[in-house]
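Re: export button greyed out
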Amino acid sequence: MSQPAFKNPEPATGNNLYLRALRGEPLPAPPVWLMRQAGRYLPEYLAVREQHSFLEVCHTPELACEVTLQPIRRFHFDVSILFSDILVPLVPMGAELSFGAGHGPQIANPVRSAADVAALRSIEPRESLKTVLEAIRLIRRELPDDVALVGFAGAPFTLSSYLVEGGKPEPFAQLKSLMYQDPAAFMMLQHKLGEMVTATLTAMVEAGADAVQLFDTWAGILSQAEYRHFCLPTLQQIFQQLQEQRIPTTYFARNGFHLLEAVGETGANVQSLDWRIPLTTARTVLGEDAVLQGNLDPTVLLGDESTIRREVRRVLTEGGGRNHIFNLGHGILPLTPIASVEILLSEIREGSK
Ligand code: CP3
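Workaround output, generated via the alternate export path:
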């Protein structure tokens, strides 16, 4: 394994572009990072994965550190995101998780009843997520101090969808069946997951993360009324507890155009948006001072240079040059050419000069 290129024992300084954007400072160009920036589009990531399984990388601090740093060395993004997975903390709660080759996550003992929810264990992340927290300590030590480190968790609704379905959640039949047949058990599940999420994100910041992001990949399958009823109370509790500890927070609700008004009530400091919502529309709904992250369609990076430059410029214009963190609207696709990421960065970093 190659050695990380930098050594710096300090946490990200106040000069970090991402932390400055979170404070609402005007910047010459927005900070930029990409969801799933450590991943299969990078040959150096594939080389690590040839030797080690996905969960082995997540649970070996030196390997998790190495793959977290790979995109930073190549592109010097302003933000580095811990390499792990939203499903990892479900294992100490009792889930039998595996990642099969070619088909995503599977949970062998899905949660289908009030008794299953009651059997889920509460966790103390400092005990049961030691490898993840150790990875954060290593990463923070190796990162340059102008790069922020973001920790993350899955939102309770999205975690439930994997936990209840036992794998790929569509068409959400088991999840909706629990939600409608035993709403009290469903709410208990949200609450237990919410406690795990708050404890995990707090421990990640203690270990060296500068900020945290909550991924709600499946929130968009709900109507706004259902989202308000089944998700919003737990989300508000999570963000309020993090706010009390002055931890900067981002919330990503994929496919959440119709939820935007309620999403604005979660209490997160930053809303991360997918490409279906124009940033200008989001500002109208969330308020002119809202800090927004996003929202280039990741498939644009499969296009030609002029398309990439045009679409990046459109997102920059809609971002308005203030209170904007540049990102994709969802994770970067494994097929993405490295050259496309370089074009994106040159349009953001040099295009404005
Ligand atoms: O963004 C990053 O670089 C940090 C690492 C990260 C991963 N997963 C690594 C990963 C993060 C933040 C996640 C979040 C995650 N994981 C979400 C929420 C965001 C989203 O993408 O919607 C969800 C729903 C998961 C669950 C998950 N993990 C699925 C459904 C899959 C299989 C699909 C796929 O892309 O292969 C994973 C596997 C996974 N998580 C990979 C990576 C890099 C691919 C593993 C590999 O084969 O090498």
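The radius of gyration is 19 Å. The button fix ships in the next patch.
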